[in-house]
Amino acid sequence: MSRKLKFAVCFVTIVFMAVLLTEFQIVFFGEDTKPEKSDCIIVLGCRVYGITPSPFLIGRLNRGLELYQNGYGNYIIVSGGKGQGENISEAEAMRTYLASRGMDSSRIIVEDKSASTMANLINSKKIMDTMGFKTAVIVSNKYHLKRASLMAKSQHIKGSYAGVFMSSYKMREIGGYIREIPAIWKYYLLKAS
């Protein structure tokens, strides 16, 4: 076997192992993590169609509302700005959805400036500091929680996590698990630079 071929085989093996290790961390974290009673619940934003929350966002909101109703937090911070093709901010769509499900509007805190997960957490931490909140349950899709946890720690958020898996959108969920691999690598690279 030539030196170039050996190098290529070694390189492919290393990349393959790195992919497997990263995916294992993503899946294990999403499945293993459990919410803890906290001062607030942060629901991370997701796509809105016009003014209607996407199915993934509805899943996150339903999980956040369930946690609120079960005493895991006294407030819900809905976090997400207005993206392309969205008539209102994700946070406003989230507030409307929760209020329509009977949640007390005074317990919903709107953070509508964020355009990324990191911005969600930076801006939500500012709200937590203003309100005197020390702990949070962070809600998202299970595939998203590992990266969200890394970002939350970087912002000194004392958080626990609660995830959703939309079984009726299994292929989109699987796509999310795959997309998270380069997203986590990018996070580590940017943090290291």
From TrEMBL:
Alphabetically ordered keywords of this record: Membrane, Transmembrane, Transmembrane helix
Cited InterPro entries: Cell_Envelope_Assoc, DUF218, Rossmann-like_a/b/a_fold
Record-annotated membrane-spanning stretches: 7-30
Superkingdom of source: Bacteria
Ranges of residues in domain DUF218: 39-159
Short name of one Pfam family: DUF218
Record protein name field: YdcF family protein
